[in-house]
Every structure is written in structure tokens, then in C-alpha cells.
Amino acid sequence: MKNLFTAFTLLFTASLIAQTHQIIKHDGETIEVNFIKTENNLVYYTLPKSTEENTISQYAVAQLNEKSKNDSKIISEKIQLDGKSDYKKVIVLKKHQTIGLKESGMITSFYGGTKGESPLSFSDNGKIRLKQNAALKGSPFIVILSNKPKDLKAAIYTY
């Protein structure tokens, strides 16, 4: 029984101490981690010698390198914007999906809907207007804070 307990303890602690993966972010930063999973636009991992689960946006991560196999997996491509016309490349995220990205400001806009326009159509057009403003500033990510008539507001994020 003692031997079984010792074996389980060694296996468990060895997995916590071993640095199995390396995260390379789009801004060039590297982090030594123990990779867990990728889910809901987030990468879950633990830091070496820790059991606390951390997350980072998959859009902030360029590559995930597995050290034991010298294997590399591309998590996301870097988004390059060349002006307002690239607004379709801008990604709308939720606030919790921005971990690891840098907030670079706020954008506001005004969109006066036409008479008889449906609320869904207004919402879609407001989102397009915010994405165009973000693309103009070179920010590939936005978090919409308000999508109301006369009050379009979003936080913009970069790598």
C-alpha cells in the first residue's frame, strides 16, 4: 500500500513540475506552461510548480510548442489590417476572451437607423460601424460595450 501511494505521489508531482509546453504569443513573449486544453476561444494551462488553472485568449497565442516531441501547433494567425476596408477581419470578443491582449482605447460612433429598421438590422449595422472604426485604428479585436441608437461604444484590443 505504501509503494502504491508513493508511486501515485511521484507521478502526480512529476507532472506538475515538468514543463511540457511553451506558449509563443503574437507579441513575441514566451511562457513555459503545462498545457491543458483549448476551448471557447481560450487556452487553459498551469504554470510550472503550480496547480492553479490559468487562461489566455487563443487570439493572443501564435504557437504552442510541445517540448517532448519537438512538435509545434499554430493556435491563431496574426491579423493584419490595412485600413477601414479590412473591417471584416475585426473579431468581436467577449470581455473574458481578451486575456493576454492589450486594451488600446475606446471607440465610439453614431448610427442613425432609418425609419422602420428592425432592431436586429440596427444591431448588425452598429456592429459593422464599430468594426470599421477599429479597422481604421488598426485594432483587430473589439468588445462591444454599448450597441444602442446614438450610443455605439466598444473597447479596442491589439496584440
Q: Key terms for this structure?
A:
SH3 type barrels, alpha+beta, 159 residues
Descriptive report:
This protein is α+β, with helices and mostly antiparallel strands. The protein folds into two domains: 13-74, SH3 type barrels, CATH 2.30.30.100; 84-158, 2-Layer Sandwich (Dodecin subunit-like). It has helices at residues 2-17, 119-137; strands at residues 21-25, 30-39, 42-46, 53-57, 61-66, 71-74, 91-92, 102-109, 141-148, 151-158. The strands form two sheets. It has a six-stranded antiparallel beta sheet with strand order 4-3-2-1-5-6, with no helix packed on it. It has a four-stranded mixed beta sheet with strand order 7-9-10-8. A hairpin with a 2-residue loop joins β2 (30-39) and β3. It starts with a helix and ends with a strand. Keywords: Signal. Residues 1-18 form the signal peptide.
